[in-house]
Amino acid sequence: SLEIPLEFNKDKVTTNQESLNEYDENILKNLSILLVEDNPINTLIAAELLKKKKIIVDTASNGLEAIKKIHDHTYDVILMDIQMPDMDGITATKIIRQELKIQTPIIAMTANAFAEDVRNALDAGMDAHVAKPIDVRDVCRLLAKFIKGQ
Questions:
Q1: What are 56's strand-pairing partners?
Q2: How far is CA 61 from CA 6, 39, 120, in A?
Q3: What is the pLDDT of residues 93-146, one digit of tens each?
Q4: Reported pTM
Q5: Are strands 106-110 and 128-131 parallel, antiparallel or unpaired?
């Protein structure tokens, strides 16, 4: 028989089976996340999906509320919407990084996935970016990478 060696990048392999998600779901258990999102329906859906993964979810509806919560609690990761009333995610991130000197990973969530928006988020001090509507599997893979990186 003829054997042909095949190389593939496992990160590019996609599957419909949730069990082959490239990370151990146990790594997300009891992870503490602050979900900052102004749309109550988006907040509810995202929080429920994350809670199904045994993630502890706290919520804030804008950047001001997020900063208050970060003063009182320590989170493993912050999921930050960009466009919000009262204080947007970019401004909140700059305050978290520059004034509070907190280095908790911040993942930007935005409907605008244009290169300029991503660059603005990263320049403000965010660590990664996910497009909305968020795919919870993508978010969980990203969370797992941050946890492994710590």
A1: 32
A2: 49, 7, 21
A3: 999 999 999 999 999 998 876 778 888 889 999 999 888 888 888 889 889 888
A4: 0.81
A5: parallel
